């Protein structure tokens, strides 16, 4: 089963987890990390690293974040580079996460990434999708510098 680390601003991550558990019972391999104003990046990193290890069974972990580019997303991105089968998703909402509940047990982390982005687009994206946009943009710039008529 894929582990989840829900990480959002203020108390939103815990509120999402509480709402899910109220409806579905205790969720295994699922942790919430709240990012409060004034929390240092170092402390956020420690909290998210602990949550990552608690949620990981070896099948993969999905970071579910509220805002792309914000501190929880950035820390999740850094942690994901050190962990295989780890995905970072931004723009998540409670209804979308709830839709994806059953997928934790049947999908790989990359399949989960594709499905949640498909369901939540255009508001939802992933670190992987953002990296693909950068690679494509870089490739176009290189092609244009080699052949200006491209």
Structure write-up:
By secondary structure, this protein is an alpha/beta fold. It is globular, with a radius of gyration of 16 Å. Strands 2-1-3-4-5 form a 5-stranded mixed β-sheet, sandwiched between helices. Helices cover 53% and strands 17% of the residues. The chain has one domain: Rossmann fold, CATH 3.40.50.510. One of its GO terms (biological process) is phosphoenolpyruvate-dependent sugar phosphotransferase system. It is found in: Cytoplasm.
Task: Describe what is shown at a glance.
The protein has 150 residues and is an alpha/beta fold.
Number of helices: 7
Strand content: 15-25%
Structural class: alpha/beta
Q: Any idea what the CATH architecture is?
A: 3-Layer(aba) Sandwich
Order of strands across the main sheet: 2-1-3-4-5
Please state the CA-atom Rg, rounded to the nearest Å: 16 Å
pLDDT average, as an integer? 91
Q: Could you state the order of secondary-structure elements as H and E?
A: EHEHEHEHHHEH
Major β-sheet annotation: 5 strands, mixed
Number of domains: 1
For this structure, what is the CATH homologous superfamily? Phosphotransferase system, mannose-type IIA component
The level-1 CATH class: Alpha Beta
Shape: globular
The tally of beta strands, per DSSP, is 5
Per the CATH scheme, the topology name is Rossmann fold
Organism: Escherichia coli
Keywords: Cytoplasm, Kinase, Phosphotransferase system, Sugar transport, Transferase, Transport
Pfam families: EIIA-man
Main location: cytoplasm
């Amino acid at each position: 089963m894929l582990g989840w680390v829900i990480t959002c601003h203020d108390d939103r991550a815990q509120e999402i987890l509480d709402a899910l558990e109220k409806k579905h019972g205790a969720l295994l391999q699922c942790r919430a990390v709240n990012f409060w104003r004034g929390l240092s990046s170092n402390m956020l990193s420690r909290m998210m690293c602990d949550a990552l290890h608690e949620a990981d069974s070896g099948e993969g972990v999905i970071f579910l974040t509220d805002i792309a580019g914000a501190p929880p997303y950035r820390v999740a991105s850094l942690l994901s580079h050190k962990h295989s089968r780890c995905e970072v998703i931004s723009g998540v909402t409670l209804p979308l996460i709830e839709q994806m509940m059953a997928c934790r047990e049947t999908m790989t982390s990359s399949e989960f990434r594709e499905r949640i982005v498909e369901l939540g687009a255009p508001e939802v994206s992933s670190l992987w999708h953002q990296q693909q946009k950068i690679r494509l943009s870089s490739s176009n710039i290189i092609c244009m510098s080699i052949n200006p008529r491209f």
